[in-house]
């Protein structure tokens, strides 16, 4: 079985062959080889890791993608696919001796079918652009990651992106019907269908969240959802994060599945309020945003039910959005949480563990203890409905030792997530960032099964090598030193 | 209520030594489904019991041999359900069989399929290793999504030991309506209503009658009833059970029953016989003794696929043939999880 370590770098002659071959396939401005042109591709949203690729290919059509893959496959050159580069786990971090295959030029919405409620789009189409194209028909694309203005559907497929509404509307895996995929040898296959299932194994589920390691998405058909007539959000303050966490369980125990159910702790609301002035209660230890959507009657019924539960759970203040403008204002703070924290610290690391919600108090207490141990601040935003926690660790990369302390702190949080029965990544992917912690979450045999899945699609380990699934050697190193690097 | 993991493991290891394939079977309610089972019987029904159920986390974990009826009863006590409304096809149906068969019921178009609710699995692979994938949380992208891959794999990739499923609260209100409509207009209506924010949770057209179920908040169901019109159906629960369990009259006279999965808006197909249509037009049952090729071709032309669900001549296989590159990936995956081909050989495709 191939592995990153076994890839031999091309020699001078090999590189010349690769460049000459790519020049035959691509237009001059679609191939970047000069170092200054490669720099913008040296990292994705995980800026702590940087690596220049050998070169960047920016094909404009399917035939070119297929030809690029065939050539790379023949020369055994690694290929790293890239969308908008907003990923937070380093899934698109280049490999030194590989090609970055940018799908940025695949920006066409090929078809919006209001009767079938589907959109067929190229991989470089932005998440939000799909909803905008569907809006005239009263439809939208449900998954809404915070980066939805910029991130692409190809990247969403690679990471199985979620968002703040996935408790009710699902993740990318629940909202994609069909993918047109180029395999590493250039073969093009259709996975899934415009019906509701396909014969054989559920390869669609396998492709979604595979971090660009099984194939290159050429086209996606996504499900569109009827836009609810009305949405309203209740914002509740709590004087204790544990009470806020229990309120979430109480809402669900009452048989309510809110359209969105989000929590922020005091450091997070403070950072956000200063940035977007959403009107958050700055005295609260935690605030909870609970959204209801549907017909006006349905929303009124559900908001009343949620208000009753929140009051009983000890909310100190409850406000319900009075109109769409206020609803968006309440959400604006939550959606801007990452940039808001970015304003008050030179650098931050965004963690992404998911935990069974009942362990929230234990996990938050431990995160606070670790904050003191590592002497770094941390703000917590939490997709409370589905247990997905985003601790934002603040640090300054220019201060000696802080990068190491921040990654060490982050690693401890991930291990804690696994310890309480959760996972190291809910929606950002493993990428390069959490590849070491994979050795904590999975046994050697389970990791071997993942390598088996990889080999079923890509026998020579050419697609995004070194990401997501560690080799046994990496795990031994990780176990010895606590670091996979 | 016992844990038979160790016995199963020994059995798999022995089978690997003897190179003797195993036929994994729960309650045997879906023996009819897929290609003919082969191998020595491995009965999972002794490996039963709820491992964990956290209603406020919306997650349940059960041993694979647990009866589906028992699982649904336990959820019902807490006002929750399996939202994909799986068919049982008999009282002995198990949770493991439900996931392995990957079959969903009337609520599928609205709520999602089995695979959409699988959060994690514990399985035994063909080397006798116990492997855990996914988990008990709703969002989890660590590693490839192997747990969802098990849904519909018919046990060919491993022996399911435990499954963790997302559960949902039962809707507070439900109503079932019936309208008289010919097939083409019914397909059009289902698609039109499907595109509106209505709490549609199931649809079924058969013999000139379109039956619709609404589920959700009381106010939403009342408003939608008003909008759609039609007549209220008295014994709605029995009706939907009849469709789900195929006890409805439509299914009783089928010599060969085809299951066609198509894009929902597909116009009526020009195949002999009238279908029973579910899932807003995306699932069409057809009793048809004609040649398989004609049915498969019609389904493929419409952008879907056809399964010979019950009866008929299975010499060509029960499932729609796969294009060569996808078949190659299937064989590779099979080899990765079950290198000696021990589990349910040929049940899905004769090639593995």
UniProtKB/TrEMBL annotation, chain A:
Q: Which UniProt keywords apply?
A: FAD, Flavoprotein, Oxidoreductase
Residues crossing the lipid bilayer are none
Q: What cofactors does the UniProt entry give for this protein?
A: FAD
Q: Where is the FAD-binding PCMH-type domain?
A: 49-227
Q: Quote the InterPro entries the UniProt record gives.
A: FAD-bd_oxidored_4_C, FAD-bd_PCMH, FAD-bd_PCMH-like_sf, FAD-bd_PCMH_sub2, FAD-linked_Oxase-like_C, FAD-linked_OxidoTrans_Type4, Oxid_FAD_bind_N, Vanillyl_alc_oxidase_C-sub2
Q: Which Pfam families does the protein's record reference?
A: FAD-oxidase_C (PF02913), FAD_binding_4 (PF01565)
Source organism, top-level taxon: Bacteria
Q: Which GO terms describe its molecular function?
A: FAD binding; oxidoreductase activity
Sorted alphabetically, which PANTHER family does this protein's record hold?
GLYCOLATE OXIDASE SUBUNIT GLCD
Query: Would you tell me the protein name for this molecule?
Result: FAD-binding protein
Originating organism: Candidatus Desulfobacillus denitrificans
Automatic annotation (TrEMBL), chain B:
Membrane spanning stretches: none
- Gene Ontology MF annotations: catalytic activity; FAD binding
Which residue range or ranges hold the FAD-binding PCMH-type domain? 1-170
Q: Which Pfam families match?
A: FAD_binding_4 (PF01565)
Q: Does the keyword Flavoprotein apply?
A: yes
Which SUPFAM superfamilies did the record assign? Answer: FAD-binding/transporter-associated domain-like (SSF56176), FAD-linked oxidases, C-terminal domain (SSF55103)
Keywords from UniProt, A to Z, are: FAD, Flavoprotein
Q: Does the keyword S-adenosyl-L-methionine apply?
A: no
Give the signal peptide, or none: none
Please state what the protein is called.
Glycolate oxidase subunit GlcE
